[in-house]
Amino acid sequence: MINFRSYTDLHQTIKNNISKIPNDIDLIVGIPRSGLLVANLISLSMNKPLVDLEGFIEGRTFKGGLRLSINSIESTRIKKVLVIDDSLNSGASLEEAKKKIQQAKLKIKIVYGAIYIKPGKESKVDIYFEHCPLPRLFEWNIFHHDILNRSCVDIDGILCRDPTTVENDDGKKYLDFIKNVEPKICPSFEISHLITCRLEKYRRPTVEWLNKNKIRYKKLEMMQYETKEQRIAANNYSKYKAKKYLESNTDLFIESNQKQADEIFNITKKDVYSFENSKMFSKIYDAYNFDEKDNINVSFFSHSSQLGGAEKSMLELINELNEKQIFSHVVIPEEGPIQEELERNNIPYDIVKLNWWAKATTKGQPEGKTYSQTESFKNLVEYLPKLSLINPGLIYTNTIVTPWGAIAANYLDKPHIWHIREFGELDHKLKFELPYAKTIKYIEKNSEELIFNSKAVSKYFSNFLSKIKTHVAHNFIEINPLLLKESVDNPFKEKDSLKILHCASIQEGKNQLEAVRTVVELSSEGHNIELLLLGSVSDKDYLNEISQYIKNNKAKNYIHILGFTKNPYPYFKLSDVILITSYKEAFGRTIVEGMLANKAVVTTKEGGTSEIIKNNITGFTYPTGNIKKLKKIIISLKNKKLRNKIAISGCKSLIKINNRDEYGYKISEIIKKQIINYQPHKKNFESIIKPLNLSIQEIKNENIVLEKEIIKTRNLSRKYQKNIDNIINSKYYKIWRKYCQLKDLIK
Is the bond into 421 cis (omega within 30 degrees of 0)? Predict the structure, then answer.
C-alpha cells in the first residue's frame, strides 16, 4: 500500500505550510530535479527569486536578471537562502547539495528544507512541511521511479495517446497507428508487466514500437479475441486487467482510464493509479485522494506516541478494522516509538501537538505533557482544515485523557466514539481539568457511544452516566511467535532462581514498589528469587523511590530495572511468573500477554482482572497491599509442576475473553452503524470548548486567514500551471531531458 502525493497535494501542502519559511529568505534554491518544481511554486508564492543548485553556486538566478558574483556575494542583497527538495528519505541528495555549497565557500546563511520527509529524519533539515512514510510515490516522478519494476502499466492513453475513432478500425489504419504513433511517455525504468486491451494479433507491431522507443518491459499481456467486435461484445476490460494484475504479483497498476482504474481496484483491493485524473485508488487513503463512496474511514486521536497498552490495543484494533474495509488515520501528539509501527502497517498519521486534560497527582510528571491547553487548542485549530480534507466518517478517541478528538468531531460535525481504557483517578492517580464527575458528563455529552475495555470500568462509569449507549469490548491480543524468538541479553543472573517479570510503565498507579518489597522480604527469608521491572518511566520520582529502596536493602543483585523495550516478549519467555501489582487495573493487558506466553500469572484482584483470571485455576489473585498473601502465592509457584498447570489452564481459558470477533468485529459494527445513521446537524461548538476555558475567537481568526489563503491560492494557481508549462516547453528543459535519456542509454 503506497502513500501517494499528487500535484494537487503538493500545492495544498505548500499552501498550508508556507508560513514555516522565514520571511527574511532572499532566494529559493531548488535541488534538481524535483526540488526545482517545489522551489518554483514557493518562489511564486513568496515572490522571491529562484535558481537551481548549480546556478546558485555559479552566481545566477532565474528572475530579474540579477547576477551574483561568487567572490562578492556577501556584498549583494542575498543574505539568507532556502535550499529545498521535494522529499527526504535517506538524506543523500541533501547531503550532496550541502557538500557542494560548502566547497563553494559562500558566506551566506543557508536554510535547508524538504516538503515531504520520512518520519524520523527531522534532524536532517531545518524546515519540513509534512511527514510522508514509506512506501511513497509522487505524481511528478511516477514514470521515473523503480516502482515500475513492480508495476503493471496500460499502453494506450499512457505510453501513447488513444487511437481516434477513425484510426481504431481493426485494420490498416489501426496498424498504422500502432507502428507510427508518437510516444507520450518513455519511462526511465523497466516495467514489470504491460497489460493492454490490444488484441493478440497486434503483438508483433506493438513489440516493434516498444523496442523502437526504448521502452523496457518483462512481459506483455494482450487480449485473446480475434476481432474488435468480439472484444466489445465481451465488455470485460476491467476484469481482464484485474485478473492479470492479481496473477502478476506486482504492487501497482497504472491505468489510463479512471472508470477502469476504479473497477480494477474494487476487484483486486490492490493499489491502482488512474492516469486520467491523477488519483490513487488505495486501501491506504491519503489526505486528499480518499474516496468516501467506496470505503469507511476513521480518524483516531491517540493520547500518546509511545507503545504502552492503550497504544498497542489501538494498533490491534486498526488492523482488525482494516480487514473489515474500515480504514484508519491516526493523530499523535509528538514523535515517538508508535511512528515505526504505524509506518510498518501502512497507517497514515499526522503529528499535532496536543496536551492531556489530566495530570498525575504524584510528584513525577508523566511523559508527553508539554503544551498548555491554549497552545493545544491553537494547534488543533490550525490542523482542522487538513482533517476536514481527510473527511473522516467518524472520529475515535482512544483514551479518557484527551478531549481533542471530541472537539474536532464537534467542529466537523462528525460522529464521535470515546474508547475508555482506564479508571483515571483510581488507577493512574489522575486529576482532570474539570471535577471528575463533570469530566464524565462532558465525555457522555460529546460522544455518540462509549466503549469500555472491561465490565469493571463500565460499572464504575455507570455511576456518573445517564442515557448514553455503552459497550464492553475486551482487547484482542495476539503475539507474533517470531517476537518470542528474538534474542536478548538475559537480565537474570541465577540459573536456579524463580524469575518474576513485572511489565508496566513505572508509575505509582502500577505499584511496582509492592513487588520490590515482597521480593526483598522473600530474599531475606532465604528464597532464591529474582525480579525484573520492565517498562517506560512515567514518574521519575517514583523510579527514584524504588531505586533507593533497592539500594538501601542491597537488592541490586536480584532486582533488575530495564527501561522501555519495543519487544518485551523475549523477557516473558525468560521468566517463570508474570506479576501485576496495580492498585486497580482497568483490563490487564499484561495478564493476557503472560497467559498467551504460557506463563503463570499473579495479579491484584481489583478492577478488571477478575474478568480474566479464575483464582487458583487460571492464575492467582491477591488483595492490593497484602504482601503476606502475595509471598505465599510466590512461594507456591516455586513448584514447577504447579506453574505449568496454571499456565496451561490460563492459556486455554483465553478462548472466551481474548476473542477477535468480540473486539474488531463488535467495534466495526458500532462504527458502521454510527456512520450510516448519523444525521449531520449544527452543533454548538462554543459549548464544547467553554468548559475548558477556550475561546472560539481562535477558530474565527483561523477562518479569516484561511479565506484569504483560498483567494490568494486561486489567483496563484493559474500562475503555477503556466510556469510549469513554460518549464516543460522550454528549450533548456527539452535539452536536459535528451541528456538524461542519452545518459540512461550509455548506462
Answer: no
Looking at residue 433, what is its pLDDT?
87
At 586, which amino acid appears?
A
What architecture (CATH level 2) is domain 498-658?
A: 3-Layer(aba) Sandwich (3.40)
Are the C-beta atoms of residues 520 and 600 closer than 8 Å to each other?
no
Amino acid at 371: Y
How far apart are the C-alpha atoms of 247 and 242, rounded to whole Å?
9
Q: What does CATH list as the number for 3-138? A: 3.40.50.2020
Residue 115 sits at φ, ψ, to 5 deg, of: -75, -55
* Of the candidates 500, 601, 509, the residue with the CA atom closest to the CA atom of residue 559: 500
- The pLDDT of residue 702 is 55
Tell me whether the CATH fold assigned to 3-138 matches the one assigned to 296-472: yes
- What is the assigned CATH class of domain 296-472? alpha beta
Is 443 exposed, middle or buried, given 0-12, 13-18 or 19+ CB atoms closer than 10 A? buried
Domain ranges of the chain: 3-138, 145-281, 296-472, 498-658, 697-746
Q: Domain 145-281 belongs to what topology?
A: Rossmann fold (3.40.50)
State the Cα–Cα distance between residues 122 and 384, nearest whole angstrom.
Answer: 23
How far apart, in whole angstroms, are the C-alpha atoms of residue 107 and residue 399? 51
Residues of the chain above pLDDT 70, percent: 89
Q: Note the pLDDT tens digit of each residue in 298-329.
A: 999 999 999 888 999 999 999 889 878 888 99
Give 282-302 pLDDT, tens digit per residue. Answer: 765 443 344 444 457 899 999
Q: Give per-residue burial for 498-527: e unless 16+ CB within 10 Å, then b.
A: bbbbbbbbbbbbbbbbbbbbbbbebbeeee
Measure the CA–CA gap between 639 and 634, rounded to whole angstroms.
9
DSSP string, 683-720: --HHHHHGGGT--THHHHHHHHHHHHHHHHHHHHHHHH
Instruction: Note the Cα 371 to chain centre separation in Å.
Output: 22
Q: Please name the residue that has the C-alpha cell 464527575.
A: 437
Residue with cell 492513453: 157
* Rama region for 721: left / alpha / beta (φ>0; ψ in -120 to 50; rest): alpha
Dihedral angle of Cα 734, 736, 739, 744, to the nearest 10 degrees: -100
368-373 LR contacts (CB < 8 Å, sep 24+):
368/303, 368/304, 368/305, 368/306, 368/333, 368/334, 368/336, 370/334, 373/433, 373/692, 373/693, 373/694
